Amino acid sequence: MAKRPLFSERLYLPARISTGHNGRAINGTKAFIPPGVRFSPEVAERVREYGRGVKDAKKRDSNFDRWEFGLAAVQAADGERKRLANKSEYFLKPLKWKTRLIRRRLIEAGVPLEIPLSRFKGRLELFEKGGFKSVPEYPTDFDAFKTQVVSIVSKMHNAGVTHNHLHCNNFVINGEGKIKLIDLARAKLYKSSPRNKKEFFERYSKDIFFAARTLADAEYRYKFPDQSGLLHENILKHMQEILNQSKNNFGITSREIYKEYARQDVAGIRPKKKKRIPRRNGATLK
Length: 286
Known about the structure:
This protein has 9 helices and 12 strands. The chain is α+β, with helices and mostly antiparallel strands. Helix 6 (142-158) runs antiparallel to helix 7 (197-223), helix 7 (197-223) crosses helix 8 (232-244) and helix 7 packs across helix 9 (254-265).
C-alpha cells in the first residue's frame, strides 16, 4: 500500500471559493490552491466594477443594463472559483454546531455523505476530494445517476432533514458512478414529521424542485451532449418520482411545487420582494 502524502506536502494556499450575490468571495468553503494558480485579473476587475456601482458605466452607455451586467459578472466569478476548486484536492469548511447532529442522522438513514478527514480549532473541518467530481462532468449512465439522487433525497426527507441548497455542484460523483451529498451548511433537522400538507410543502418542496431540476438538466446533457438546457416536463416527472418515495406526501403533486418555484428559477424571473409596512407608534399602517 502506497504511503499517503502528508498534508504539508499537498496543502498550499487556502482561498475562498464561495461566491456571494455580488460576485465577491464570501466566508465559507476554502480550497487549497497550488502555487502559480491565480484568479483571473479580467474577472476580478468586472466584479470590482460591479461592486463599485454602475453610475460611470451608465454615463458612457445609455443602454447599460445593471441586472444583465451584474449577472454576467457573478457568473464569471463563480465559474472562475469553480476552476480554482477543480485544481484542489483538499477543502476547509466551517463547522456549525448542528452539522454534526445532522450528519449523524443522515448516516444512520443510509445517505452517502462526505466525511471530514480532521477537525480543527475554530470549528473548521478538512475534507478530501478523493476522486469525486461535480456532476456536470458526468453522468455517463443517467439511469443509475437518477436512481441514486432520488434515493438520497427521499431518505434525507424521511429522516426529517432538509438540505436547502441542492444543486448540481452539491452532488459529487466518482468514476464508478457513486454519488455523495455535500455541503450541509444550510441543512435543517426537524424533530417531528410534518402534520399536514402545508408543513410538508414548506419543509421539502424546495429540495424536491431543485433535485428534479438537477436531474432534468443532467438528462438533457446525457441525451444531447452538444447542448444544454432544461426540459420542464422532465422536471415534473422527476419531482413526482421523489414524491412517490416519501413516507407521506399528503397528496401533493409535482405541479403544485412547480408553480411555486419554476416561475422565478426556470423562467429567469427574479422573485418579488415583500413590501415593508411602515410602523408608527406601535401601530401598523395599512
